[in-house]
Structures are given as C-alpha cells and as structure tokens.
Design goal:
This protein is mostly helical. The chain is built from 19 helices and no strands. The longest helix has 37 residues, at 280-316.
C-alpha cells in the first residue's frame, strides 16, 4: 500500500513539474509573440488589470481549495460542497466589487482605457471558481497527469486565440480574450476530469467551520502576490502604463531565467533538507553546497543576459522594446537575492518554521512598499533601484532567520557564492565588451548573439575551472544523481 502511494506521489510530482514547465515555456513564447504585436501601453494595462484580478482570485478561491486538500476522507464531500459554493459566491462578490472600483482605479492610474480591462478580467473570477474545487478533488486522487494534459490544452487554445486577436487589432483585449478562453477551457476540463455535481446541502455552521482556515491561507498567499507585484501598481500610479509594460517585459524575461536555472534545485531542496534535518553538520554542508551549485548555474545566466540584452530584446520583442534593455540589465543584479530566497523558504519549511516565513514575508512587503513609495515621485529608475535595495537589505535578516538551522553565518554564505560570482562577473564583462566592440562587424543579430553566447560559455567554464573546480564537481554529481533517479 505504502509503495503504491509513494509511486503515485512520484508520478504526480513529475506531472506537476511537466505541467508547470510547459505552461511557463509556452506562455512565455506567446507573451513574446503578442508583445511584438502590441505596444508597451497595452502590455502595461493588461499587467495592471491582472494584478487586481489575481488579488481577487486569491481572496475568493485559493483558501477554499486548500480546505478541500486538507480535509479528511470522511469530511471531503461536505467540505467540497461548502468550498464550491463559497468559492463561487466569493468570486461573484469580488467580480462585482472590482467592477465598481474599476473607474476609481482607472482614475488613479490616469488612464480611461484601464476601466474596461478591469471590468472584463473581473468576470473571469467566477469562471475560475467554477472549476477550482473539482481540480482540488482530482489532485487529492493523484490525478495530476489528466489535469496537466488538459491544462496544457487549455493554454494552447487560449494562446492561439490571443495571437489571432492581436493580429486582428483587438489590442489589449487580445490578452483579455486569452484569459477568458483559458479559464473557461480549464474549468470545463476540470469538470470532465472529476465528474461531480456539487449539492447545496450544507449548513451555515459547516460554512463557518471552513472559513477560518480558508481565510488564513488566502491571507498568506495574498501577501506573497502583492509583495511580488506591488512595484507594477506603484509604477502605474506614478509613472504610467507604458512604463509598467517595459518593466513587466523585463521582469518576465528575468523570471524565466530564474525558472530555468534555480527552480530545478528548488524542487528538490525541501525534501532534501527534511531527510537530513536531524544531522546539523550535514545540513550545513548541504546548504553550502547548494549555494555554490545554484550560484554556478544561475550567476552566468543573469550576467550573460545583461551582456547580450540588446541583441536578445531585438530578436525576441523587436526594436521598439529597446528601452527594456537597461531595465533588464539592472534586474539581472537581482541574482544574489534570488539565490538566497531560493533556499530560504525551503529551509524554513523543512524545519516547520511557518511563522518565521510569514513574519519575513510581511516585513519584506512593508519594506518593499515603503522604499517604492519613497522612490516613486522620482520616476521609474528610482523604483527599480529601490527593488534592488530591498533585495540586498533583506539578505542579512534572511540569513539570521535560518542560521539556527543551517549554522551558516552571513560571512560563510558570502564565501560560498564568491567564486561562482567572480567567474560570472568576469564572463559578463568580457561578453559585454565582445558584443559592443569585437562582434560589432557581424551585421546579422542572430549570428552575433550565437557567437556571444558561445564565447560566454567558453570563458565562464574556463574561469570557473581555474578558481572553483569544486563547484564543477558538485554540478556533475547533481546531474548524475538526477539522471539516476529518473532512470
């Protein structure tokens, strides 16, 4: 029985990774295609609208889905009924509230065009709520494969329609249509995957019993989303929708880089720390090793992106998006805070320190808002710099929170990433000057980019092998262990 459950869990994890990976890669490709058709203002308007809609979605639905996941086998049916109708009811209320607030928010952002976008996106919430509980119940039964395939199909249909609409001059509403289609197909496939008609037979007492847990889970997720997107809102209020568009394109590209280089390690780190948490010496050794390996993987990607940003933006988004280049180069300096955050939450999670995680997230949110509001009257660049400042200012506090578990001081963390950082910095500088001067005679931007990336790989590998062979050994060991587990 245990072996069967373990096998199902492993298969579920694999399909979850496949679903998330395919969704991220495919959505990024579609984002690139649509960004080439639309302008910065349209992308910015949609980004602002999605922030408001996502806040409403979390407030209305996520806590109820978590309640179904948490429920015991005997309580699943009644909790699912309560959660379904609670979901739908809250989603309708949130959609109506956003509709009412659409005009004031548009006035705050100084653009009338936002009102229609907000109103349209608001009514995707009830559609999403209609399938959330069916999905949660299917996932309880390890139905990740079915939902992964159907989620990919939903994304594909929505994306094709969005590209068609963008080419036919629907403007920002091409992205709105994509959201509607994706949510509708996802909900329909969730109902097909889990054939269940929710009864309305439940009591007020049962609803009240589910609400506290649902509210606490929603609050935690809400802080996380606002924390990651508050800059978009502040940029929209103080600078304008076009600047939000430029920032969102830069941030989306950086996020894809993080997913490609840091997420693979993040997916295994929680289970790894759980398995060794009783051995303090091993925890410290593993933490140091993961820092070095993660740095060796991610630092060259971030610094390499900064070096080739101009040619990459030209190829992906087109020349009208060249204002994104300096933003992308600045955000690439976020590589160290991203690396620390990669291991920070897994360590706290594996040691059961959820209160510490919530405290940090709350403090980080407050610091983010204060720094961004102070910087906002001075324009976009001060807001970007405030984001970077927040990332680095919070590092000592993060290390202090996890030090009782990792036994690693701030100095030891710095030493663990110093050599990969030095090798990546040398490579980044070399590639930058190579692109600007050495490869300038190459007129074809694609061939110039290929030459720069090839040179960067050779330079980085050479420098790293000279100053930090241990990280290379660890990278090889990590690759072998993952290959053995897959086989």
């Amino acid at each position: 029985m245990f072996v069967n459950v373990k096998k199902k869990a492993m298969e579920a994890t694999l399909w979850s990774v496949v679903r998330i990976g395919v969704d991220q890669v495919f959505s990024f490709i579609v984002f690139v295609v649509i960004a080439r058709i639309l302008g910065p203002v349209e992308v910015g308007l949609f980004a602002i609208g999605m922030i408001v809609a996502e806040i409403g979605r979390i407030f209305a639905t996520s806590g109820f889905s978590d309640a179904v996941t948490k429920a015991g086998a005997d309580d699943e049916e009644i909790v699912s009924r309560v959660a379904f109708w609670g979901n739908v009811g809250m989603a309708v209320v949130c959609a109506a509230l956003i509709t009412v607030l659409a005009r004031p928010i548009s006035w705050l952002m100084a653009t009338d065009r936002l009102e229609g976008v907000l109103t349209a996106l608001a009514w995707t919430l009830p559609i999403s709520a209609g399938g959330a509980i069916h999905m949660a119940r299917q996932l309880r039964r390890f139905g990740h494969k079915t939902l992964a395939i159907r989620s990919i199909v939903a994304g594909l249909i929505g994306s094709v329609v969005a590209v068609w609409a963008a080419y036919h001059n629907f403007g920002v509403y091409a992205l709105v249509i994509q959201r509607f289609i994706t949510e509708l197909v996802t909900t329909l496939t969730a109902w097909l995957a889990f054939r269940w008609w929710p009864s309305v037979k439940f009591t007020r007492a049962q609803l009240i019993e589910v609400l506290p847990f649902s509210a606490s889970m929603s609050a935690s997720k809400l802080i996380g989303v606002i924390n990651s997107r508050v800059q978009d809102m502040i940029i929209g209020i103080f600078v304008g929708a076009a600047s939000v568009g430029f920032y969102r394109v830069a941030r989306r590209t950086i996020d894809m880089l993080s997913i490609g280089t840091l997420t693979p390690i993040s997916t295994v780190s929680v289970n790894l720390f759980v398995a060794i948490r009783e051995d303090q010496a091993k925890v410290k050794q593993t933490f140091i090793r993961l820092l070095s390996v993660s740095g060796a993987l991610s630092f060259p990607a971030f610094f390499g992106l900064a070096a080739i940003a101009k040619d990459l933006v030209t190829i992906l988004y087109g020349e009208r998006w060249l204002d994104v280049v300096p933003l992308m180069q600045a955000l690439s300096l976020f590589c160290i805070p991203s690396l620390i955050s990669l291991l920070f939450l897994p360590v706290l999670t594996s040691f059961g320190q959820s209160k510490k995680a919530l405290r940090f997230t709350t403090i980080q949110f407050i610091v983010t808002v204060i720094l961004a509001l102070v910087a906002a009257p001075f324009g976009l660049w001060p807001i970007i710099l405030s984001l970077l400042a927040r990332g680095y200012v919070m590092i000592p506090y993060q290390i202090r929170l996890i030090e009782p578990h990792t036994k690693c001081s701030l100095a030891e963390v710095g030493l663990a990433i110093l050599r990969p950082l030095a090798a990546a910095s040398a490579m980044g500088l070399a590639c930058y000057f190579l692109v600007e001067y050495g490869l300038a005679p190459i007129q074809n931007v694609i061939w110039r980019l290929i030459a720069a990336v090839s040179a960067g790989i050779i330079i980085y590998t050479t420098v790293l092998s000279l100053i930090d062979r241990q990280s290379i050994v660890w990278l090889i060991q990590l690759a072998r262990s993952r290959a053995e587990k897959r086989s």
